[in-house]
Design brief:
11 strands, four-stranded mixed β-sheet, alpha/beta, Spore Coat Polysaccharide Biosynthesis Protein SpsA, Chain A, 7 helices, 25% helix
C-alpha cells in the first residue's frame, strides 16, 4: 500500500519557543491529545496512539573507524542532531539505546530530555539494540507503537517525522516506511502488536524479517525529504555531508 504526501493545507504545525530539546522550535503534529482520557482522543475524533522513538546509538562504527555519533555536525554532534530532530516533533518520548562508548554518548546527551537503555549485547549487532528497547516499551501498557531510527541519521527533518506520525495515527495497525524517489528509508514505525515478532527476530535478518512476514501491513509513505536515506557509515559520507547545513539537504 502506498500513500502520497500531505498538501500544505492538510499538514499543520506550529512553532513554539526554544526549549530544552535544543530545537529552534517544536514542530507540533496536527494530531493533538485530550488529557481527559487514558487513550487520548484527537481533534478529529480518532483514538490517539502513544508513540515512543527508539534511537540506536550502541554500534561500533567499524567502517568509520571512530565513533561516528560523536563527530561534530552543525555546532553539535551527529547523535545530538538526530535526537533533537525527534524531540522537535509530536513523538511522545525518546529512548536512546547505548552500548559502545556508552558513557561518552550519554555525556553529550545528558542535557536532553531522553531516556537511556544500556544494551549489554551490543556486540551482537543492531537487532539486539532494537530488542533491548522493545523489552522496556512492552511493559508500558499505554504505549501503542514505536519509531525506530539509527543514530547516524541526523538529516531527517522534524516535519517529515510528524508526517509519518500522522500516517501512523490514521493507520495504527500498519508498518510505516518512508520512501524518497522510490527508495525506502528510515525511520520505520511498528504497532505494539508486532513487538513479540521483533523480540524473536534472528540477528542476521533484522527488521527485514518482520516486514517480510507482515508485508500486508506495510504502508509506504512518499516524502520529499532525502534525509530518510542519508546515514554516515563511512568517512567519505561524513566528509561530504559535514560541509552541508542540515536544512540544505
Amino acid at each position: 500500500m502506498r500513500t502520497g504526501e500531505l498538501s500544505s493545507d492538510q499538514f499543520s504545525y506550529r512553532i513554539t519557543n526554544k526549549n530544552r530539546s535544543g530545537c529552534i522550535g517544536r514542530v507540533e503534529t496536527s494530531v493533538s491529545k485530550n488529557s481527559t482520557d487514558k487513550k487520548y482522543l484527537t481533534t478529529r475524533g480518532v483514538v490517539y496512539q502513544m508513540m515512543e522513538a527508539i534511537i540506536l546509538a550502541a554500534g561500533f562504527s567499524r567502517r568509520m573507524k571512530q565513533n561516528k555519533l560523536l563527530l561534530p555536525l552543525s555546532r553539535a554532534t551527529v547523535i545530538e542532531n538526530t535526537v533533537m530532530n525527534c524531540l522537535c516533533t509530536g513523538i511522545d518520548g525518546v529512548t536512546v539505546v547505548l552500548g559502545n562508548e556508552k558513557e561518552k554518548v550519554r555525556q553529550v546527551l545528558e542535557q536532553y530530555p531522553v531516556h537511556f537503555i544500556e544494551n549489554p549485547r551490543y556486540a551482537e549487532g543492531m537487532s539486539s539494540s532494537i530488542q533491548e528497547g522493545i523489552k522496556i516499551l512492552i511493559r508500558d501498557q499505554k504505549m501503542d507503537g514505536v519509531m525506530i531510527l539509527p543514530g547516524d541519521m541526523p538529516f531527517i527533518k522534524p516535519e517529515t517525522i510528524n508526517y509519518l506520525v500522522e500516517n501512523f495515527q490514521k493507520n495504527p495497525g500498519s508498518i510505516i516506511i518512508p520512501v524518497f524517489q522510490d527508495r525506502k528509508g528510515h525511520p520505520i514505525f511498528f504497532n505494539k502488536s508486532l513487538f513479540p515478532n521483533i523480540l524473536n527476530i534472528p540477528e542476521d535478518m533484522g527488521l527485514r524479517e518482520v516486514i517480510k512476514e507482515n508485508i500486508e501491513k506495510v504502508l509506504y509513505v512518499d516524502v520529499s525529504d532525502q534525509g530518510i536515506l542519508i546515514d554516515l557509515d563511512r568517512p567519505e559520507d561524513y566528509a561530504y555531508w559535514h560541509s552541508k547545513e542540515l536544512r540544505e539537504v
